[in-house]
Design brief:
The chain has 11 helices and 14 strands. By secondary structure, the chain is an alpha+beta fold. The protein has 3 domains: 7-52, Uridine Diphospho-n-acetylenolpyruvylglucosamine Reductase, domain 2 (2-Layer Sandwich); 57-172, Uridine Diphospho-n-acetylenolpyruvylglucosamine Reductase, domain 3 (2-Layer Sandwich), CATH 3.30.465.10; 177-270, CO dehydrogenase flavoprotein, C-terminal domain (Enolase-like, domain 1, 2-Layer Sandwich). It binds flavin-adenine dinucleotide. Residues 28-36, 73, 100-101, 105, 109-110, 112-114, 116-117, 119, 122-124, 160, 165-166, 191 line the site of flavin-adenine dinucleotide.
């Protein structure tokens, strides 16, 4: 199928993009188009107007800040995977970005698109929750900042409001934590059936953030015993609290496996 007819605008500066979104309640942002175009082709989405932000160059940057790293909404997944600054300061994010779909999708798909689309099996929303990122949202009325965990409200649902554009992400960098990542997909490039990020603090505290299991990223703070059997048992207990979208027992088993693999990955980084 093909999409219904739509108007098309291609602003080159952020203020014009925000004005176009404010003027027309039926307008939708298009970035990489890797999720929106299939939805339009299936007529699951029927925007009256597309505001293409690909020429808004001020949204395309990766910068070191006092607290960590700032990423513009137009950063492509493959850039995130390859960028030297991200590799140095946030290696777990670079690794996770490399698992998003196939190369062709990663060279078009954007950070802002992935975070806003909020597919429950997406790596990057969970990465932002695990890394305690703050998302910057702008409209003609101003700018607000939302912690990633509060941005995700449920299946494909976020706190973004009409007329708002996700413009940037601010990620703190701390040497006091090490992070690991793992996911399981049937074939390379497929959406993950389950994935996890693990953060290990120097004082032994751990956090697991799952994706692909339930309707959105799920972070849990927990004690993770050093003993292998006890740790798997603890992860299995916590996995029971998750509410899988399908195949509950299978997804919970996968949740334990990916969390254990991410834990080992995090320990490896600390060494
Ligand atoms: C075959 C295939 C496999 C894939 N595999 C994976 C995978 O394994 N993991 C994964 O995470 N993703 C996967 N994807 C999706 C891919 O990552 C998309 O790039 C991403 O979900 C959307 O980013 P985009 O820039 O293409 O957004 P678009 O498709 O342009 O937009 C998606 C939505 O976000 C909105 N939007 C876009 N940018 C902004 C912004 N800055 N502010 C506000 N709203 C905005 C749009 O209005 C739309 O509602 C896959 C896609 C395909 C086609």
């Amino acid at each position: 199928m093909k999409p219904v007819a739509f108007a098309y605008e291609r602003p080159t500066v952020l203020t014009d993009a925000l004005r176009l979104l404010a003027e027309d309640g039926d307008a939708k942002v298009i970035a990489g188009g890797q999720s929106l175009i299939p939805m339009m082709n299936f007529r699951l989405s029927r925007p009256a107007k597309l505001v293409d932000i690909n020429q808004v160059k001020e949204l395309s940057y990766i910068r070191k800040t006092d607290a960590g790293v700032a990423l513009g909404a137009l950063v492509r997944h493959q850039e995130l995977h390859e960028d030297p600054l991200v590799r140095e300061l946030l290696p777990v994010l670079a690794d996770a970005a490399g698992e998003v779909g196939h190369w062709a999708i990663r060279t078009r798909g954007t950070l802002g698109g992935s975070l806003t689309h909020a597919d429950p099996a997406s790596e990057l929303p969970a990465a932002m929750v695990a890394l305690r990122a703050e998302l910057e949202l702008q409209s003609v009325d101003g700018t607000r900042t939302v912690p990633a965990e509060e941005f995700y409200l449920g299946l494909l649902t976020t706190d973004i409001q009409p007329g708002e554009l996700l413009t940037a992400v601010h990620i703190p960098v701390s040497s006091a934590k090490s992070y690991g990542f793992a996911e399981f997909a049937r074939r390379p490039g497929d959406f993950a059936l389950a994935g996890a990020f693990v953060a290990l603090a120097e004082n032994g505290a751990a956090e697991v953030t799952w994706f692909g299991v339930s309707g959105g990223p799920e972070r849990r703070e927990l004690d993770l015993p050093a003993d292998d059997t006890a740790r798997r048992q603890r992860l299995a207990e916590v996995a029971q609290e998750l509410d899988p979208l399908s195949e509950p027992e299978y997804r919970r088993q996968l949740a334990v496996e990916v969390a254990e693999a991410a834990y080992q990955n995090a320990r490896g980084r600390r060494a």
